[in-house]
Specification:
The chain has 212 residues and is α+β, with helices and mostly antiparallel strands. The protein is built from 10 helices and 9 strands.
């Protein structure tokens, strides 16, 4: 069996790394990397990030690619959950369209760009790494923030760069908060208290006042 035929054994995997590949192809590391680079160039496999791949055969036959993209957003950095602009856009809270994936993680902030899209990661402290739900979509399990947590995460990073927040500053983001219910506002207030800084404490009341 030649090397190309051997990678067909990986066509059922949602992603794999070099160690998984080496279980099917018993060659030295240098030769393995050379094969990986050649398979990427000829389209046999897709590089998701350095050291993480999926076969083009698996990708092409996906019935729900959007669900796979969201699933991989959680896998490129672990642990992580979808949040901020991406989730707010899904709920119609942001007025503008979002064309990248925004994710909160306990790992370093950073980004990845691949065939699936562009993924932006923001680091958050462990005490605020919550407020997400595990959902099943398209056969994949993925983690995404609730509306309240996505909104908190969205402003968590923005507030750090301003001395104080006010109604005018918040209105400039043109948010649609009509669908927020009392439970959402209570959870937003909870996360603001958890942030541990005084200027976050007024975020919830100021946002609630935007529709007045």
């Amino acid at each position: 069996m030649n090397q190309v035929k051997k990678i067909k054994n990986l066509d059922e995997l949602s992603y794999f790394d070099k160690n998984s590949l080496s279980q099917y192809i018993d060659i030295a590391d240098n030769s393995l990397y050379a094969n990986i680079n050649r398979w990427i160039k000829n389209g046999k496999i897709i590089q998701l990030k350095k050291g993480l791949y999926v076969t083009s055969q698996y990708f092409d036959k996906l019935a729900d690619k959007d669900a796979y993209f969201e699933f991989m957003a959680n896998r490129l950095k672990v642990p992580s959950y979808l949040s901020m602009e991406y989730i707010l856009s899904k709920y119609g809270i942001l007025s503008e369209s979002v064309f990248s994936y925004t994710i909160v993680t306990l790992k370093r902030s950073g980004s990845f760009s691949n065939k699936l899209g562009v993924f932006f990661y923001k680091n958050i402290k462990e005490s605020l790494f919550d407020g997400y739900e595990i959902k099943e979509r398209g056969g994949f399990l993925l983690k995404e923030a609730s509306r309240a947590k996505a909104l908190f995460d969205y402003f968590y990073y923005k507030i750090q760069s301003v001395s104080e927040i006010d109604r005018k500053w918040l209105k400039s983001y043109r948010l649609n908060l009509d669908q927020f219910n009392s439970g959402d506002w209570d959870m937003l207030d909870y996360y603001c208290r958890q942030a541990g800084f005084k200027k976050y404490l007024f975020l919830g009341s100021l946002l609630r006042g935007l529709n007045d």
